[in-house]
Design a protein that fits this description.
Strand 5, helix 5 (about 105-115) and strand 6 (about 120-125) form a beta-alpha-beta unit. It contains ten helices and 16 strands. The protein is an alpha/beta fold and about 325 residues long.
């Protein structure tokens, strides 16, 4: 167990400020070093947070400094190569941004490398720590809406890999991260949309089956029903709604409420950094571990693969490349 964990951040762009906010509020963490290929950006970031040890080469940083935890806040194409190199250099934990990787092959190598070097890998699906979703997970586990049979998620205005990865991950989380058996889906791609240097889509719809026979529906993109991480859970004895447009962050109606919507009290929130330190000290999986990140990425990739093959895709997936990349390489510009 360490009294204070020395922290490094790789990639000093916008998203890294969220990570740094968690670190500066965490008494067990000390922001020690930062790295970014943009010298001006790393200097500005260092001045803002009082970090003197600044690098334009993250490998030089890791080989020079004694670092315990690294946040990877680069563009998605660099998540896998940076995580893999960081894991080989003696750190205890890595918090990497989403999407986990560009494809499942990269994600699998990230998992294997971290396991080989005894590194706790967490993927920043940080909404798993948001109180409404934590409470909903417990309600479902407690049977407050009876036997759940359908979960419908909406990510309005966002694509699968950047925005709806959170929605899909939340759908999995509130239902206890149960395995998914198969996925069928379709995407619409007009022109050649890109998001953070990755091929993207304008609209996506996915339908999937958990092993328990519970069904999930995810819709994302430019013309969805209203809502952002809006999730509706249907049970035999009631319903739970999260992030209702214009409504509360969480509401439930069941036999106890006589069918009326009620807004329950929410638990205290934590964050991915607190859980990563606890996972290291307790030698356990992070709530948003690399394995959970892989499972959510696999579901997204299966939507693409179903659209490519025009059929259901059974998990685990065999295709390790991004099916969307394969479609574009085949001439879908």
């Amino acid at each position: 167990m360490s009294d204070t964990y020395k922290i490094a951040v790789v990639g000093c762009g916008g998203i890294s400020h969220m990570h740094t906010g968690w670190y500066v509020r965490e008494p067990k963490a000390t922001l020690t070093a930062i790295a970014d290929i943009d010298q001006e950006r790393v200097q500005a970031y260092g001045e803002q947070y009082g970090v003197e040890k600044q690098y334009t080469d993250y490998i030089e940083m890791l080989e020079t400094e004694d670092i315990d935890i690294v946040s990877v806040c680069t563009r998605p194409k660099l998540h896998a190569p940076v995580v893999i190199e960081v894991a080989k250099r003696g750190v205890k934990g890595i918090l990497s941004e989403k999407p986990m990787a560009e494809n499942l092959g990269q994600a699998r190598e990230m998992l294997q490398t971290c396991e080989e070097h005894n590194v706790k890998l967490a993927i920043d699906h940080q909404v798993r720590f948001s109180a409404p979703y934590v409470a909903a997970k417990q309600m479902i586990a407690d049977g407050q809406i009876g036997e759940i049979f359908r979960i419908h998620g909406v990510c309005g205005g966002g694509d699968l890999k950047d925005n709806a990865t959170h929605t899909v991950d939340l759908m999995r989380y509130i239902y206890g991260d149960r395995p998914v058996t198969w996925v069928i889906g379709q995407i619409e791609r007009i022109g050649a949309p890109m998001k953070y240097d990755l091929h993207s889509e304008n609209f996506a719809l996915g339908y999937f089956k958990f092993e328990s026979n519970v069904r999930g529906i995810i819709e994302s993109g430019s013309d969805t029903a209203p809502g952002y991480h809006h999730i509706y859970c249907y049970g035999t004895d009631g319903e739970i709604e999260l992030a209702a447009p214009g409504g509360p962050s969480l509401r439930i109606r069941n036999e106890q409420s006589s069918g009326a919507w009620v807004t329950p009290e929410l638990p205290a929130e934590s964050n991915p950094v607190q859980d990563l330190i606890a996972a290291i000290e307790e030698d356990r999986e992070h709530r948003s571990s690399g394995h959970q990140g892989y499972a959510s990425l696999e579901l997204l990739m299966a939507i693409y693969e179903s659209s490519r093959k025009r059929q259901r895709v059974h998990l685990p997936m065999e295709e390790m490349e991004s099916p969307l990349t394969l479609m574009v390489d085949d001439g879908w510009v």
